[in-house]
Design a protein that fits this description.
Layout (H helix, E strand, L loop, with lengths): L1 H14 L15 E2 L12 E3 L5 E3 H4 L4 E6 L6 H13 L11 E6 L6 H13 L10 E4 L3 H11 L1 E2 L1 E3 L2 E3 L4 E4 L5 E5 L6 H12 L8 H7 E4 L4 E4 L1 H27 L1
Parallel strand pairs: 4-5, 5-6
Antiparallel strand pairs: 1-7, 2-3, 4-10, 8-9, 10-11, 12-13
């Protein structure tokens, strides 16, 4: 028993440097903290690209693809919106009837005129017929933006004239429930269709998102997700520790 205790002590000491490799319950400064099953605030007020005031419950009334971007972003936003346009042009669902798209600017200084230019650019890039009200480009004040992004678990920070923020999409049910997060900079039309169907059914589905969050960390400098080697090695070591300890215990029982 003393030998087992010594071995366990050594293994704990070896594993100790990796204790910070695992996600902790703490505030995310820049990135995404999944809030599956949470409801976006129904009365949050925005301005659409025409300059009209709208509330979220009137905008999100169908399964919705939601992207938090800002329209004059020099970084990942253009790629996110281009990929979003690519996938909604191909997804096998009818826009405006079976799904909608909503983009919300995280920059409170952006005005409807800027949103209008962005909307025109991306709608004209589509090959399929896409109703104008099926893809909304919204702006809002800082209080509203903060309320909605925090509810959605999307965190960003301003550095100089730019915002550092995560990419990806959310799927929202017709009653504004967060159904799923779609990570990455490229979107698969089948995955998007299934996510929208889940949203229609009111399902919340983390699928592989939690695994991706565990294996990847958002790098605000590079504005991308990078492989978290320390976290992965720490996980493998933890599995090895328990496996080795279990073998020792079973061997000792067999000898006795």
């Amino acid at each position: 028993m003393k030998n087992l205790f010594k071995i366990l002590t050594v293994l704990i000491v070896v594993f100790l440097p990796f204790r910070n490799a695992f996600p902790q319950e703490e505030h995310v400064e820049i990135g995404i903290d999944e809030k599956l099953g949470e409801y976006l605030p129904s009365t949050a007020k925005f301005k659409n690209s025409a300059g009209n005031e709208v509330i979220l419950q009137d905008v999100i009334n169908k399964p919705t693809l939601l992207a938090f971007v800002y329209y004059e972003c020099p970084g990942i936003c253009s790629n996110t919106l281009s990929e979003l346009a690519w996938v909604v042009d191909r997804v096998n669902l009818e826009p405006g009837k079976e799904f909608k798209v909503v983009t919300i600017s995280i920059d409170h200084e952006e005005i409807p005129k800027i949103a209008k230019i962005a909307k025109e650019n991306y709608l004209t890039s589509l090959k399929r017929k896409f109703p104008e009200d099926a893809w909304e480009f919204l702006t809002a004040d800082s209080i509203t933006i903060s309320e909605v992004t925090k509810t959605a678990g999307v965190f960003f920070k301003k550095y100089g004239d730019e915002y550092r923020h995560p990419g990806g999409l959310l799927t929202i049910s017709p009653d504004r429930k967060i159904s799923r997060y779609i990570f990455g900079s490229q979107f698969n039309q089948f995955d998007v269709k299934m996510a929208l169907l889940d949203a229609q059914a009111g399902k919340t589905s983390p699928t592989v998102a939690k695994l991706l969050q565990f294996c990847f960390s958002y790098d605000p400098e590079g504005r991308s997700y990078t492989l978290n080697i320390t976290r992965i090695i720490g996980s493998l070591m933890l599995i090895g520790v328990f496996g080795f300890f279990l073998v020792l215990v079973l061997k000792k029982k067999k000898i006795n």
